[in-house]
Amino acid sequence: MNNYEYIETNVENSLGFIALNRPKVLNALNRGMVAEILDAMETFDRNDDVKVIILSGRGRCFAAGADIDEMADATAIDLERLNQFTDWDRIAWIKKPIIGAVHGFALGGAFELALCCDLLLASNDAEFGFPEVLLGVMPGAGGTVRLTKLAGKTKAMEWLFTGMRFSANEAMQYGILNRIVAKEVLMEETIRLAQQIALQPPLSIRFIKESVLKAIDSSIYEAMQFERKNFSLLFSSKDQKEGMQAFLEKRKANFTGR
Ligand code: CAA
Fold this sequence. Notes:
There is one protein chain. With about 260 residues, the protein is α/β, with parallel strands linked by helices. It is built from 12 helices and 9 strands. The protein has 2 domains: about 5-200, Alpha-Beta Complex (2-enoyl-CoA Hydratase, Chain A, domain 1); about 200-250, Lyase 2-enoyl-coa Hydratase, Chain  A, domain 2 (Orthogonal Bundle). Strands 1-2-3-4-6-9 form a 6-stranded mixed beta sheet, with helices on both faces. A 3-stranded mixed beta sheet has the order 5-7-8. Helix 6 crosses helix 7 (about 155-160) and helix 10 packs antiparallel against helix 11. It is globular, with a radius of gyration of 19 Å.
């Protein structure tokens, strides 16, 4: 399954793979590629055979940022008319877990894309950064927001003000990564983690994701109320009955996502 121009997709063992695929320009994200990524994510989200989505890059790196060629001559009005960054909000509506696997560069818009993932693994050669300031601009697809929420104001400002690249170790230290692994086993380790999640009851995973994302943006009280409703809601699922019955009968649960 792959009728895309700038990405490759496939489904295997309950995992939906999306690989950025413009290696000659280090997977620079043009508008066509972003549209395809969004389309692939939404398609996987609707596909019952997919439990977890994995995002990675072909060639030397994850991606070196937005396509500078494509935007160099743009005016502010062009950007407003294209409204392209609003489209990125669609990633926040994806119900299934998205795991990013970063090797080599994840810069600018590509780092923003990585920060949209729910979990993020990187190989030890990975380099992150927001070089927009060096181009006379700044991140526009959530970079100042998501990085600040994860790493805190002080480090976010240093990285954003200088445009410097930083290592996977530093990214790990500031809460951006789940794991750093050797480059040769990046996909293997990503798949291992994804499969662990894919075995769980899909409705629990869906409501956990919703609840964690809600917690980022609301007061503790509001987030706890939201969590409580989701907890109750799971008691109307077959998987809750099956999971608890299986425990009582000392057998393995057979979850169906219903
Ligand atoms: N856009 C378009 N083309 C890019 C690109 C990008 N972001 N990054 C790399 N390329 C192209 C290069 O132009 C080059 O093409 P040619 O072979 O035709 O010359 C090819 O990819 C290979 O790149 P390099 O020869 O530069 O490779 P390198 O190993 O010497 O350097 C690099 C790698 C340090 C990542 C360097 O390519 C670089 O600095 N790229 C730009 C990084 C950047 O500024 N990203 C932010 C973009 S702005 C953004 O993302 C804003 C936003 O939020 C929307």
